[in-house]
Amino acid sequence: MLQPGPPKFQRRKEDRPGEIVSAALGVFSEKGFAAARLDEIARRAGVSKGALYLYFETKEELFHAVVKSAISPNLAMVRERLEAFPGPFGGLLEVFLPTIAQVIATSAVAPIGKMVIGEGRNFPELARYWHEELVAPMIGLVSGLIAKAQARGEVRAGDPRLFAAQIMAPFLMAVLWRETFVPVGAEPFDVQALAAQHLTVLKAGLLIGEKA
Amino acid sequence: MLQPGPPKFQRRKEDRPGEIVSAALGVFSEKGFAAARLDEIARRAGVSKGALYLYFETKEELFHAVVKSAISPNLAMVRERLEAFPGPFGGLLEVFLPTIAQVIATSAVAPIGKMVIGEGRNFPELARYWHEELVAPMIGLVSGLIAKAQARGEVRAGDPRLFAAQIMAPFLMAVLWRETFVPVGAEPFDVQALAAQHLTVLKAGLLIGEKA
Amino acid sequence: MLQPGPPKFQRRKEDRPGEIVSAALGVFSEKGFAAARLDEIARRAGVSKGALYLYFETKEELFHAVVKSAISPNLAMVRERLEAFPGPFGGLLEVFLPTIAQVIATSAVAPIGKMVIGEGRNFPELARYWHEELVAPMIGLVSGLIAKAQARGEVRAGDPRLFAAQIMAPFLMAVLWRETFVPVGAEPFDVQALAAQHLTVLKAGLLIGEKA
Amino acid sequence: MLQPGPPKFQRRKEDRPGEIVSAALGVFSEKGFAAARLDEIARRAGVSKGALYLYFETKEELFHAVVKSAISPNLAMVRERLEAFPGPFGGLLEVFLPTIAQVIATSAVAPIGKMVIGEGRNFPELARYWHEELVAPMIGLVSGLIAKAQARGEVRAGDPRLFAAQIMAPFLMAVLWRETFVPVGAEPFDVQALAAQHLTVLKAGLLIGEKA
DNA sequence: CATGAATGAGAGTTCATTCAT
DNA sequence: TATGAATGAACTCTCATTCAT
Asked: Which nucleotide lies nearest residue C37, CA to C1'?
């Protein structure tokens, strides 16, 4: 065969790990860690089962990579934008509640978060990792903004951390609802409408000197 | 060995199922369905592995029994008390938010709810069951009360179902927080304080004609 | 309760072993030794599982009892009648081939024989027992009659044991056919017709000086 | 250990199924279906237990493969040779009875046939399969030849199917005898001698116008 | 690098046997 | 005697992991 045949479409090798993690995210979030089959992950990634072990030493390490993949890029940017926000706290809510709704509707954070909840007891390092890298900083960030707003007389007195929870909880609930009950026939929540209504309640209930 | 040890066989047909379900709840909620070992459930229940099969045909059926065990008694009573509540909606919140906090802190509903979230995709019948038997009726109940309060001019305009979600979401978050992140070092939420602060915000943000 | 109620029908206890063996015969011959469940034997015998162990030490011993139960009464009587038969060998065949057909159609020997064939390798003692107590004596008996008939010039020359096999084999085949293939739709053999036709062939083929 | 032992892994996808079926035939025919252990089949086949499942989905499917393995090649050839036989029916018997004796002495059909008898009730599909694919066609073939011979005036009047049974039964008996009673000490039948003597009897008893 | 046949420990399940009642 | 709940060893089957190719 001196004549080279048409070049076989050799997919870029550099992104194999990414493709595997992506496939694994799908399987893990559908089945949970234990019920996920490496066979199926390999199949969805378009590689052989053995190839998984060229990039990840064990199933657990692959799971770690999946869980960690959800975190890296987002937080820093969000922090920057939130802390740089110019206006008052009410204005910040007006901008960011719809943004959160947007993120929730599209990002892969949701299924991974559900996995962290479901598998946390089996993989405490991952729960710790998520807590330390994503959840606690996020809560801390929002709490800090609230505390500053309280100092400026914009937000009523109260524990900023609890306020942060009150602000974020409905979105958590909407995500879990979508992942858990919508597939079995529950009516989904309209997160944009939820964001709007939540904004109204928070402005009247949280801020000082606003008109409902 | 003149002192006979505890007898090897114990016949307690009446109590076994409850003990097994209780032990299974512990193991399933710690490990998830797939990673839970029948060996360990049997050990915690103080029976042999074979004895499990005298009461439950398969591991899955035992899991169903566990999930369903959380539901039966509570809902009817709650509904009755809520619908019979005499005063205005604000008073109802004052009474019931601390009650919810109480229930959350003590009941076994929390770990089972976490299991439903984590295993819902693998056991859609259970997700459906929980949705239909517990979650949807609960949301519907609260939504109905809100709609009535709106008709009486007590609650601001808005989608009652979203309001219901806003009311209940922080407690869901507190539960999942406790189950997921507290074991790895997160600071727990004080649900009683959360109830109190949530009440304040809701009264100001939800009700009409209240003073913040 | 001083007034004795109506006497409960207490089945004669003396025959429990017999009832158990009878039930066991049914189950063993339907399922084979390994697939037979003591639960089902007990149920068919109308006793509890534990009661089996009051009469038989193990499943295997019960199986032995079943296999041996088929033998005891029959052979001696058959031997006596065959050896006392007054007429020539041809007349003997005329009388006994239909008798064999009759026995085959009704007796429990057939399913037990099938079990001995099927389980012989697992229970060599039983195969030996059947061989020594039933099959070999039967063959020996018939061979002896043939040898005597040969000495009298009634039967052609040849190995009497092979002749015996030739005489009995079609009935064995009919039994196994009924047990194995008839249940899945095969047309059964009419053993009476088989006996008649076999008699015709044997008289022409085996005897000397007969007219076909 | 400078001398490396045989490698732990052997990749021989082509040969495995045949080797496994062959090993399984041995174990199944010795123990019966239920008492056969996959461990032992794997050991005899020289593979791991898990490897069995690469080729057969369940133990039952492996059993089916074993039972079916006995059938495929033989029947068509036999039919062709029998139907093409040029001479009279007596000549055909002269040729084929020794051939049957030969086949019985060597082929694996014998132990499989015993399995079909022993397990037929538990696996009716297999009994049906054997009946339809092997036994019924065989009987039908022989019956047809007999009917033709009767039409030519070579064979006496009578039911051809019963004649076929009479012809074949002694060989069935010899096979079962060898499988069941010879291992526990019974004197085997000399199948070649049986074929010869059976031929003599059949020529005298079945054919018309032959001299004994 | 890549494959996938092969491994083997470990899971859920069954059932002959035991024993408190 | 008689019961049947309870036991536990042993089975079939699964699947993460390995390695000859």
From this structure: E15
